[in-house]
Amino acid sequence: MAAFGLRGKSLLALALVCLLAIIPAALVGWLVLQGIHQHFGDAYARNATLLQRERIYAPISRELALSLRFANSEVTRQWLLDESSADKRALFFREAEGYRQDFRDHAYFLVNAESFNYYFNSDAEPVNDQPRYQLREGNPDDRWFFSSLSNPQPFNINVDANPQLQTTKVWFNIFVQDRQQRVIGLAGSGLDLSGFIRDFISSAEPGVSPMIVSADGAIQAHQDNNLIALNSGADSASLTESDTLFGLLGSSAERDQLRQQLLALRDTPGSVTSLPVQLDGRDQLLAASYIPELDWYVVNAIDLRAARVIDSSWLLPILGILLLLMLALILLFALTIERLLLRPLQQLKQGALALAAGRYDVRLPSSRKDEIGELSQAFGSMAGRIREHTEQLEQRVHERTHELEQANREMAAAHKKIGDSIDYASLIQRSILPDRDLLRHLGEHHAVLWKPRDVVGGDFYIFRNQDQGCLLGVVDCAGHGVPGALMTMLAHATLDQAISDCGAEDPAAILARSDDIIRHMLGDSPEARVLATNMDVGLVWVDRAARQLVFAGAKIALYYSDGQQVECLPAGKRPIAGKRPGQYQNQQLALEPQHTYYLCTDGFLDQAGGEQGYGFGNNRFAQMLRTHASLPLAEQSAAFAATLADYQGDYPQRDDITMLCFRYD
User: Fold this and answer.
1) Average pLDDT, the chain
2) What are the angstrom distances between the C-alpha of 315 and each of 34, 206, 308, 538?
3) 358 burial via Cβ count (<10 Å: 0-12, 13-18, 19+)
4) Where are the domains of the chain?
5) 624 in Cβ contact with 586 (< 8 Å)
6) Residues whose CB falls within 8 Å of the CB of residue 621, separated by 6 or more in sequence, listed in order
7) What does the record list as coiled-coil region(s) (predicted)?
8) Do residues 127 and 97 lie in contact, with contact meaning Cβ atoms separated by under 8 Å?
9) Which of 56, 87, 144, 356 is such that its CA lies 20 to 30 A from the CA of 474?
10) Average pLDDT score over residue span 114-126
11) pLDDT at 30
């Protein structure tokens, strides 16, 4: 009866307290919910606008940056200045094809400001180097171009339809200028309007209407295509207020206030402003943020009554949860009374009986002030000491873990510095490669396969063009990675000096002079005897007038093939700067049409692969040349890389690989 009385009274007191607390809490909660609805609505509008801004900013900025690079390319500029040049035309369309693959819609356009020729290529049709049509100043469909010419800005983003191409896009119109800052053309790309709205503007959230607005208030993108002000990005002079966002507002005061807020946003890019307005006959909250790089405003019109600012469907579940919580609290209170009061009394009784029976492993209440309480206190003291020792051990483990984490961070920072340095060294090493000169003078009559084993390597290739001919060569310096890359700097400078001293038309003299220079630089230093400083070199002088090749090599031979036979001019057996000086002789060979000539370092021939892990080998190399010698050089290079990769399989790359191919038909 006593136990029931203590338990019953406790439960009754708790039920009364919960009832008295829940009723006023529910009233206050309802008032607070109504009060913060507007605050949450404003926060919802700001967050939705910032999210929409970030959703648009990155891809559009990328497309704009690519368009600027495309328009500012020297190849684009040179062709616009000389549109009739076939070579410049071909070079432009080759480069433009690379940009087209990078553009989001795989399309670009170009307009010559002198001839008004309009060029356009996309995935819809094969690449065409002829103008699609010619712009006319009096044609309303071409008004975007002539309006853009009067715009002082370096570019504009314009939403417009092109009837000739039968497409409506968000166009990135970039001015192309010559060295005197004179506009010579317009170039850029475009995003399909329907795809742009689907990817960046459409919102599945009820009550939210995203849009993009220009600095003049013209709507550039909206889920309702009828509200979009076409050609307003290029021809803002013809805009009227009815064509803008301001024309949709209910009063002139709202229009003036919105103008002021949009102007203020230009001074604080990235921030969000909000304004309650009448839009489409409904009270809506207008939130806007400015993107200075695009000169666009991202605007969200939010109907707070329709938007899910606060989901009212959770009210009934919350009430149910509160009721369950109250019942759980009562149950928890009952369990607490049972555990803190009733159970210790029962444990005290059972403990006394257990102690009387000689069992000392029982758990006794720790708050008693009698003999049982003293014993319980002794157990509690022992538990406290164990707990203290455990905490000390955990603290030591934490400190050691912190030291290890700090060491790992330092190691990561050091690794990053080393990686950054190697990446920068790779850029420096690539700067000495004559890719532009080869492309300018040999064009499609050459191909290069250059695969360093590491980020940087010990292989490189050279090219020197002169009036009567040109010098080509490949160099394989001892070592890989950073040591090999440093040797390439020394080797490149040595060959430059040797060519200057001996002339490009005498490869054997260049090799001998290079050997002398390196031996003179290194001398008898101990490092030269310990470290490998030698290099393999193959040089070919092409006399275009005489249709003759002059070859000399230091451990790098010259291969040539017409697709039927593979021949080889052997190289000297000693490398440059080896233990003993080598003897290098010029070998002459007629420059035959339909023949392809190859210089290759030993990294290709020595690459392990196949089932047994053997090197690629000379026989397999010769068969590969015979199979592909008749192909265009670009296809040969791709075929060689694929053949090597297929043979290599999962084996790691052993050495740097360089292969230079050329042909004179």
Assistant:
1) 82
2) 13, 20, 14, 83
3) exposed
4) 66-196, 356-405, 434-663
5) no
6) 559, 600, 604, 605
7) 390-417
8) yes
9) 87
10) 91
11) 64
Cα separation, 90 vs 161, whole angstroms = 29
Instruction: Give the CA angle between residues 446, 449, 451 to the nearest 5°.
Output: 155
Q: Which of 469, 433, 470 is nearest to 448 (CA)?
A: 433
In eight-state DSSP terms, residue 555 is B
Q: What is the pLDDT of residue 3?
A: 47
Indicate if the alpha-carbon torsion angle 331, 332, 335, 340 is positive or negative: negative
Q: Domain 434-663, what architecture? A: 4-Layer Sandwich (3.60)
**Helix, strand, coil distribution of the chain in percent, nearest 5:** 50, 20, 30
CA-to-CA separations, 404 to 39, 394, 413, 658, in angstroms, rounded: 46, 15, 14, 43
Of 151-160, 241-250, 425-434, 645-654, the least confident: 241-250
CATH architecture, domain defined by 66-196: 2-Layer Sandwich (3.30)
Least confident of 92-96, 129-133, 350-354: 350-354
**Burial grade of 289 (CB within 10 A; 0-12, 13-18, 19 or more):** buried
Contact between 279 and 249 (Cβ < 8 Å): yes
pLDDT, tens digit (0-9, with 9 covering 90-100), for 621-650: 999 999 999 999 999 999 999 999 999 999
Which pLDDT tens digit goes with each residue over 435-470?
A: 999 999 999 999 999 999 988 888 999 999 999 999
Task: Give the model's confidence band at 533: pLDDT under 50 very low, under 70 low, under 90 confident, else very high.
Answer: confident
Q: How many whole angstroms separate alpha carbon 132 and alpha carbon 119?
A: 6
Q: Is the pLDDT of residue 14 over 80?
A: no
Residue type, 447: A
Measured between its terminal Cα atoms, the distance across the chain in Å is 115
Residues 6+ apart with CB under 8 A from 82: 88
CA separation for the pair 148, 109 (Å, rounded): 15
Spatial distance between the Cα atoms of 584 and 572, rounded to a whole number of angstroms? 6
Burial 605-634 (b: 16+ CB within 10 A, else e): eebbbeeeeebbeeeebbebbeebbeeebe
| SS (HEC) of 204-233 | CCCCEEEEEEECCCEEEEECCHHHCCCCCC
Torsion of CA 618, 621, 627, 633, to 10 degrees: -130
- Identify the CA nearest to 172 among candidates 191, 196, 153, 150: 191
Quick count: other Cβ atoms within 10 Å of Cβ 638? 15
Q: Are 190 and 60 in contact (CB under 8 A)?
A: no
Burial 266-288 (b: 16+ CB within 10 A, else e): eeeeeebbbbebebeeeebbbbb
CA distances from 472 to 14, 304, 432, 447 (A): 96, 72, 14, 12
Helix orientation angle between 343-356 and 371-431, rounded to the nearest 10 degrees = 110
From the centroid of its chain, how far is CA 372? 71
Name the residue type at position 352: A
Q: Compute the C-alpha angle 383/386/387, nearest 5°.
A: 85
* Strand pairing category for 614-615 and 296-302: unpaired
DSSP 291-341: ETTTTEEEEEEE-TTTS-SS-GGGHHHHHHHHHHHHHHHHHHHHHHHIIII
pLDDT at 290 over 80: yes
Rounded Cα distance between 86 and 452, Å, is 36
